[in-house]
Sequence to fold (243 residues):
Amino acid sequence: MSEAQPIVLFDLPSKDHGAPWSPNTWKARLLLNYKQIPYTTQWIELNHIAPHFRSLGIPPNPPSINPKPYTVPAVHLPDGTYIMDSKKIAASLEEKYPDPSIHLHSPQVAKVEECFGRLLVPMRGILIPKIGRNLLNPESVPYFHESRSKQYGMPLEQLDKERAGDAQWEETKPIVRELAALIEENGGPFVLGGEVSYADFILVGALCLFKRLGEGVFERIVGMEPVLGTLYEASGKWLQKND
Fold:
């Protein structure tokens, strides 16, 4: 692969059209778009990730970091290197393309990561069944249902019924407030105020998923804390290239 060729981003397609939905792959895509780094997208179904990446000779994720050996996002760099994991991709691209900086080592990045990780706990039952129902191509649905049912210890229909109600939404409110406070701390519209950072990509990637899911998820989150909607709108130019 020559230096003249663009980066290849491996991403998950969605039914009806190929627009991205994964918050993890959006973090890498937003970074590429923000830095204006040329890239193309290679769409890959969930059930094809492991065999395809294995065939490319990509080393698996260490079990201590990720129990899934092969995940997206992954990128193929012009020098022939493959990198998995959004944070590793960010570190590599920040080193190779330092301007404009994404302030990867800002303390606010770690704060957003920790807070968002806590938000996912009550939101799993809200999000996971809707991903299978509203976003995935038919080819990926059986794999998704089998793997996530095993992960959460129940069929997704049961997860949807038991862990996607008002009680779970109530649990999200104080955590969403914490995330909003991190934006407000420096005056917005971004986490660092007027400067864009990787912390924004974490939040905007999640908001992209919420919006794509439908069923009022995005509206409910933004309704709790409008500064999240302002952040999403302020990031609009980096959401335009999505293929």
Summary: The chain is about 55% helix and 5% strand. Residues 47 and 140 are 6 Å apart (CA to CA). The first helix runs from residue 23 to 35. The mean pLDDT is 95.
